[in-house]
């Protein structure tokens, strides 16, 4: 199958060691599949410009909290970036070019903008894959503060993260230490694509959902749940041979999975066609 050139560039970028992956470039290759005429360098330049503007405002000594305050003032007060609470599941919230243009997004894409600006001003930050609400934090030893890019760059401590988690799920949720662990660049990109996958599945845009899963599997090739989900999409669009292969792979990896009986029934149905 011939994939778009942007898919090929995406694959080349993510095949590098994780620390060498350019997050902004990778995210723009994701967007370019949806927007083929997208000028990637226009948006990289936009990030460069934002970082330059912030750097001009920074104090001589870059204290972490003061640096965060400068970024926040520029992004949220001056440029008007905000979390899209009005239409959270608009797919445009997951495309970096649209987030930069429209200045609205969801936690992970606003975090990506923040991370890329921080990188450009030599202020190391990392993504934090808290369930339901992506966060970022300074990559500084013994500094346990978190930044919520979706909520105007709010600075939080671990207890605040627990409260935010309960707000997201609308019920008591026990914070686990792994919820606040830094994620790799591949994991961040896979989470962005997972958001797109679920958005497209919910509106039955199966070809777009399939494109998202295919790119997740470039990042996480051995993920059994993604292999299963690709098989389910293949099944829905009538690509039986491909569906069978993915279902059999999934069952070989997780023969006792909770949904294994459902997958076996689907295999039986395909064999009758």
TrEMBL record:
InterPro entries linked: SirB1_N, TPR-like_helical_dom_sf, TPR_rpt
Chain ranges of the Protein SirB1 N-terminal domain: 42-193
TPR repeat boundaries on the chain: 190-223
Domain of life of the source: Bacteria
Keywords (A to Z) from UniProt: TPR repeat
Claim: Isomerase is one of the keywords in the record: no
Sequence similarity: Belongs to the UPF0162 family.
Record protein name field: Protein SirB1 N-terminal domain-containing protein
Naturally occurring in which organism (per UniProt): Aliterella atlantica CENA595
């Amino acid at each position: 199958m011939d994939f778009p050139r942007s898919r090929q560039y995406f694959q080349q970028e993510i095949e590098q060691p994780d620390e060498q992956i350019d997050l902004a470039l990778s995210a723009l290759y994701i967007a370019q599949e949806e927007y083929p005429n997208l000028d990637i360098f226009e948006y990289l330049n936009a990030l460069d410009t934002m970082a330059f503007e912030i750097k001009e405002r920074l104090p001589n000594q870059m204290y972490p909290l003061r640096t965060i305050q400068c970024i926040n003032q520029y992004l949220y007060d001056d440029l008007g970036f905000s979390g899209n609470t009005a239409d959270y599941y608009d797919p445009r919230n997951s495309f970096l070019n649209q987030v930069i243009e429209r200045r609205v997004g969801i936690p992970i894409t606003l975090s990506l903008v923040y991370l890329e600006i921080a990188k450009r001003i030599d202020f190391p930050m990392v993504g934090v894959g808290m369930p339901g609400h992506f966060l970022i934090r300074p990559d500084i030893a013994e500094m346990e503060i978190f930044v919520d890019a979706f909520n105007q760059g709010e600075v939080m401590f671990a207890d605040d993260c627990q409260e935010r988690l309960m707000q997201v799920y609308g019920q008591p949720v026990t914070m686990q230490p792994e919820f606040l662990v830094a994620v790799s660049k591949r994991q961040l990109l896979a989470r962005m694509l997972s958001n797109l996958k679920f958005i497209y599945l919910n509106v039955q845009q199966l070809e777009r959902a399939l494109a998202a899963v295919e790119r997740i599997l470039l990042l996480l090739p051995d993920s059994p749940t993604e292999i299963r989900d690709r098989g389910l999409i293949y099944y829905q669009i009538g690509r039986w041979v491909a569906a069978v292969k993915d279902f059999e792979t999934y069952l070989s990896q997780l023969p006792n999975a909770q949904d294994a009986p459902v997958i076996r029934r689907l295999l039986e149905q395909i064999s009758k066609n």
